[in-house]
Amino acid sequence: MTKIRVYELAKELKMSSKELMEKIEDLNIVVVSHMSSIETEEADLIKELFAEEENEIVKDELVNKEEVEVEEEVKKTSKSNKNNKDVFNNKNNNKNKSIIEDGAKKIDEGDGFIIDIDGDILVRDLADKMGINSSQVISKLIGLGVMATQNQSIDPEVATIVAEELGFKVNILTPKVEEDEFDLDFEDNPKDLQARPPVVTVMGHVDHGKTSLLDAIRHTSVTKGEAGGITQHIGASTVNINGKKIVFLDTPGHEAFTAMRARGAQVTDISILVVAADDGVMPQTVEAIAHSKAAGVPIIVAINKIDKPGADLDRIKQELSENGLVPEDWGGDTITVPVSAKQRTGIEDILEMILLVAEMQELKANPNRAAVGTIIEAQLDKGRGPVASVLIQKGTLKVGDMVVTGTASGRIRAMFDDKGKKVKKATPSIPVLILGLSEVPNSGDLLYVVEDEKRARNIADARKDQIREQLKVTHKVSLDDLFERIKQGEIKDLNIIIKADGRGSIEALQQSLQKLDTEEVRINIIHGGAGGITESDIMLASASNAIVIGFNVRPNLNAIEVAKKEEVDVRTYRVIYEAIEDIQAAVKGMHAPKIVEEILGRAQIRQTFRLPNGNSIGGIYVLSGKIARNAKVRLLRNDVVIFDGDVASLKRFKDDAKEVLTGYEAGIGLENYNDLKEGDTLEAYILKEVENY
């Protein structure tokens, strides 16, 4: 970044160096002498500030001149001194009234003006709302260490500080709920409401036994099939207890899934907080308490693992009390139930407590209306396309209904209950898996039934347009040069687009990456989507100066070509924490990989063959580059990574081949993998060691 000396800037502004230095010091910019250098950005701000001051001086002179002329004219034409004075005062009063009305909404009984802000705001717009010069706002911003021109935006928090320093109060408006503009929901007549099952969320610290408790309740074995023993996605299940239904949502316990846990609290009626009797209240336990309280949800504490030698119920109750949950037997109103998920003791007690609390809440909904539900989890299925698990909150959802959720729309082709059984309808509080959406919706999005396909598409398209308008065009960025550009002040925001194989993975990455914010750079996740990296993702990244991170997905051929052309940095990972570490290293200036990946080529599987020994062979056609025998290969299905490993065999006709080039056919076998399907894509690559990267 170039700099300019103080004396050079003084010449340009036609003032003495001393005069300029005094003005610069007023702006909290430190200069030692007229030979000191300042950044070009600071110089531009100073120029803009002085230019606006000159404009205001000229304006004031013109106003004064106009007022004098008006006064003289009034004196000439008026019949009395009293009338002269009235005309002059009326003009000034009207002018002052105009300034007040334009600058602020109302006066708060002598405490100063109140201005409304509905999000990020341009410096000049903030100045206009207060009826003052932009230069005054810029001066305050510089004092706060924020360098911004009148055409740049600042966030509501900074705007509030500046406004308060200038004697104004700020009212930050709550964004209008998107659904309101489409009239998709309405209040039900109390006479139409009927009892519905309670929706229960199971929360707590990782390894405290949430899934084991659900396992004991559902008499299923969920834990064994889940990677690392950590629940990867929110699951929903319905349990029948003495003829009454209870719906359970299982929220993940790992700290990277905070958002999913928060969402669980928002759609639930009762929270089961699982605390291990031998471990106690942990940070994630405290977070779960906060989420439940914020949602106004009653909490039942399941003190699990009471069979462990180190179990101490009194210590747990003491820690709960310290966090605002005083047990009933200690004089409070929090129900605590000692349980052992492993030995299945206390399970009936906790179910009894759930039904008791639900009875007190008198949970009701109208089943005879157009359905409204919440997307609990969504992902791109290999064979069925976009699938979403939905918790119905109002009305009855039926197969054949036309729905819209976020930017996705479609007709319900099929529905499945939590046991995988096909169902034709779902009533309030019942979770179902639905097929038929145009794209993968976001977890937490509301789903609405609408009257026809045209309305559903119009709403989805309108929402897409709103998203496009929010995108801003800036300069390209890469992880490799990120630290240098941060150091030089060129980059203050790192925009990231996340594509992954499921919504749970997206939210895990999003929450973890946003924790990497520093004073120098802020991490912005501008888009997250399930499925492979497409050309439109690359164009979005190009337009918004973002890097693209793929988790268990790959870019298609068009996306690769566009990424090269648009110079968009695309990074793909198989492990979430490698992505987090990469970004963290780049922000801290330690990103210097010694191993880089080189793509050799791509091929399409056009036929599959089963050998007598049970192994599968894919008949491939090489689309680009080459497929080499000693290379690593990824098997892609809808651009989602299904397999990543070694080539077991590569043959041209009956002969072994070292490599097969573009336009040729061959037979390929993958090491310890046989699930090959026609239409799958193979991507061959090698890992290269790079010196002085």
Report on this model:
The protein is an alpha+beta fold. It has 18 helices and 36 strands. The strands form nine sheets. Strands 10-11-9-12-13-14 form a six-stranded mixed beta sheet, sandwiched between helices. A six-stranded antiparallel β-barrel has the order 16-17-23-20-19-24. The protein is globular and about 85 Å long. The two termini are 24 Å apart.
Keywords:
30% strand; 18 helices; Rossmann fold; Elongation Factor Tu (Ef-tu), domain 3; six-stranded antiparallel β-barrel; 693 residues; 5 domains; alpha+beta; six-stranded mixed β-sheet
Which structural class do the helices and strands define? alpha+beta
- Largest beta-sheet details: 6 strands, mixed
Distance between the ends: 24 Å
| Portion of residues within helices | 25-40%
What's the SSE blueprint?
Layout: E1 3-5, H1 6-12, H2 17-26, E2 37-39, H3 40-77, H4 81-103, E3 106-107, E4 113-117, E5 121-122, H5 123-130, H6 134-143, E6 153-154, H7 156-165, E7 168-172, E8 194-195, E9 199-204, H8 210-218, E10 235-241, E11 244-250, H9 258-266, E12 270-276, H10 283-294, E13 299-304, H11 313-322, E14 335-338, H12 347-361, E15 364-365, E16 372-381, E17 385-394, E18 397-398, E19 402-405, E20 408-416, E21 422-423, E22 425-426, E23 431-437, E24 446-450, H13 453-469, H14 482-487, E25 493-500, H15 503-514, E26 522-530, H16 535-543, E27 546-551, H17 557-566, E28 570-573, H18 576-588, E29 595-610, E30 616-628, E31 632-637, E32 640-652, E33 655-656, E34 659-661, E35 665-670, E36 681-689
Parallel strand pairs: 4-7, 9-11, 9-12, 12-13, 13-14, 25-26, 25-27, 27-28
Antiparallel strand pairs: 1-2, 3-4, 5-6, 8-15, 10-11, 16-17, 16-24, 17-23, 18-22, 19-20, 19-24, 20-21, 20-23, 29-30, 29-36, 30-34, 30-35, 31-32, 31-36, 32-33, 32-35
